[in-house]
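User: Need the bound-state model for zinc ion:
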Amino acid sequence: MIGFRPAATGRIALLAAHCDDLAIGAGGTLLTLCSARPGLTVEALVLSGGGTAREDEERAALADFCPGAGLRLAVLKLPDGRLPAYWEEAKAAVEELRARVDPDLVFAPHRGDAHQDHRGLAKLVPTAFRDHQVLGYEIVKWDGDLGRPCAYQPLAPEVAEAKADLLERHYPSQHGRPWYDREVFLGLARLRGIECRARHAEAFHVGKLTFDLAGG
Ligand SMILES: [Zn+2]
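Assistant: Bound-state model below.
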């Protein structure tokens, strides 16, 4: 496997349909990235949960998942589970983010996600971020849509544990959900670790990847 080590990662964009998606899908990667690159600019957009307790959870959580970063978070008020009916609003929000930010990396849901809100956002992202590397994070759910991602960020053991700790601490509104527990988070990270010869990892779907084999 080739290690992808972007030289200039000074700014990243995070997109999610719901509060907690980013933490579940990419929390360990965010901890790894932000710890290694103090001062990283993180521009985050979450489409739903604005004005509710879920927004408060998300703000506190992302602050801890992005230590030392310059974090800017917008949480909109689109209804949960209704993204197709609010397509124009979602598209405008994604385009507005793109107009403000030219990120080195983009984290977003992936097209194979069975949740219609996740899948809808995944389709919108490349319409606005056309010249960017997009990493599609995965979220365990009832639908059983875990696929075969091809890109991995290995996680140090303490990072995998810290991710599980922060998910437990910051999202009490989700504690009754059957997919929301430490065993799930660490279990998937352990499985993805096996696939990339690490103890733990987060995995991402990549739609396109351009090489520069000449280097220089
Ligand atoms: Zn979600």
